[in-house]
């Protein structure tokens, strides 16, 4: 039986993309949500590659994977007071 | 017109793969005498799709070993020796005769008057043997994934980066864009490493690194746009081929038509400064300013994971120097001094690969000399240089290149 590997790749990428985009909006830790957003954008780039659109794929990686999640994290850093985990006082040292 | 030492890396590796498969097949056929079904395995191994797939793996391995074991180690060694000389000392000098086992434990040889080339290997072995610590409050999955992402995105550059007209893994149509895209993945991995360690030094270092790398990517890509006005191509092979003709013939030697000579000089300066910031070298190394942030975003890493994120900075330096050499300094073109005959074909004594690594290593040494002789600039000054100086200058470079293309003034 001949398997259409491009279709398989499309379904795998779509599954990653849907799971990633659900995690972006449900994750309670906002920095993690920004990193899930990066995975969603990279898988969208992979789908562009399946459509034989190499230029759009490379621009997607260049702009969306490299820059947009980083900008989101900057936004989080500049608006929220704490984005790090705090040790509780009794277990941490002085 | 120089010629490459390896005219076709894929064909060369196919011969190597064929030899390996032949040896394996002899063993499998010897087993097949006892267990007959193994004969099918030998036939499957010798079939064409399997050989092609394995050849791709061999090609990638050859490029990996070439990039890390030859270029990374040599550039690290050159840097350590050179900055030691700048500081008026000898630098690493431990020779191979200091190893405590046969055949190196010779009492009659000096142990500490060598070149010290294997010092980096020794440091790597030391890092491999160290314990791999994870901070208690760290985001474990992302903490462990970030070095993989950084290393993978750096090695992705070498998939498309050619070392001569024959020594490359794969020839893409848009390989210049691919190299830039692979370069641009790093801030994400660095930010991930800085945030996940849950340490204020790594967080500040990661944020600074991401801000700096993103700010300096913009003038870099704008300079590439200016260059494309001259070359009209996003293919690095085409860009290098255009720089092969002589610009001015002076009789004894000719000035080659590098993109550096001509309207692209401003773009070259901006691109080099931006590339220096992309490499996080010293005038722009606030991400790991060791006086204020212990080791920047690599603080919490230990063992070989630290070795990966630390050593791959040099690999990015090699890739960045190679990119500057390809775009502005003529790539692998070079004069031919003498040729010798191999089966009726004239092969130059100095092949293209040698011209190229000469440029790459010399350019890396220029970066080393600059970075060990200037002070570090503050983070706000870095962002001011990036946004208020380099971006306008790169826009000016685009304007100059467009005007030069209009009136037909080229290198």
What attributes does this structure have?
heterodimer; A: 94 residues; mainly alpha; Four Helix Bundle (Hemerythrin (Met), subunit A); 71% helix; 0% strand; elongated; B: 411 residues; two-stranded antiparallel ribbon; 13 helices; 4% strand
**Overall number of structural domains of chain A:** 1
CATH superfamily descriptor of chain A: NADH-ubiquinone/plastoquinone oxidoreductase chain 6, subunit NuoJ
Helix content of chain A: over 70%
Count the helices of chain A. How many? 4
Radius of gyration of chain A: 18 Å
Q: Care to count the β-strands of chain B? A: 4
Summed up, the helix count of chain B is 13
Most extensive interface between two protein chains, with residue counts: A-B, 23 and 28 residues
Question: From N to C, what is the helix and strand string of chain B?
Answer: HHHHHHHHHEEHHEEHH
N/C terminus separation of chain A = 66 Å
Envelope shape of chain B? globular
N-to-C terminal Cα separation of chain B, in Å? Answer: 18 Å
Please outline the major beta sheet of chain B: 2 strands, antiparallel
Strand order of the largest sheet of chain B: 1-2
Would you identify the regions of chain B where 5 or more consecutive residues have pLDDT less than 50? Answer: none
Q: Tell me the structural class of chain A.
A: mainly alpha
| Number of DSSP strand runs of chain A | 0
Low-confidence stretches of chain A: none
